[in-house]
Amino acid sequence: MQTHSITILGPLSTMDLTLPLYGYRVPAGFPSPAQDHIEERISLDHLLEIQAPHTYLVRAHGDSMIGSGIYDGDLLVVDRSADAVQGDVIIAAINGEPVVKRLGRVGETLAPLSDNPLYQPRLILEGDDLEVWGIVRCSLWIHRVHS
């Protein structure tokens, strides 16, 4: 059974770059004529809640978080300045091994949980070390796989 790990890509910095946001909603069904009306300009820093230098990127590996919409190869935007609370998707190290999990409960104990029913909860036992490295603000799913 495959585990779900991460590859740390590095910190993000603010860019002060804005992109056009068109007022037209693109249908995912039948095509409709496009409208060239820019409603506003939006900053990716604002949209992705980038709090430089406290935000960094990691790449997810594995399938244990598919219930959260996190798939193998996705980029995760992680905020290390926010405190993790139950229900957050977190980047953590369990005995030094980096993982992405949902912070939940098993009985009275906080535990890093998978969002895939194929995986059993990973309980933190006496002697185990759990260190939260940040919370996942969002994931970026790359649709085009070929350059």
UniProtKB/TrEMBL annotation:
Keyword set, alphabetical order: Autocatalytic cleavage, DNA damage, DNA repair, Hydrolase, SOS response
Transmembrane segments: none
A Pfam family the protein falls into: Peptidase_S24
Span of domain Peptidase S24/S26A/S26B/S26C: 20-136
Annotated InterPro entries: LexA-like, LexA/Signal_pep-like_sf, LexA_repressor, Peptidase_S24_LexA, Peptidase_S24_S26A/B/C
Gene3D superfamilies: Umud Fragment, subunit A (2.10.109.10)
NCBIfam families given in the database record: PRK10276.1 (NF007621)
Record-stated family: Belongs to the peptidase S24 family.
Official protein name in the record: Peptidase S24
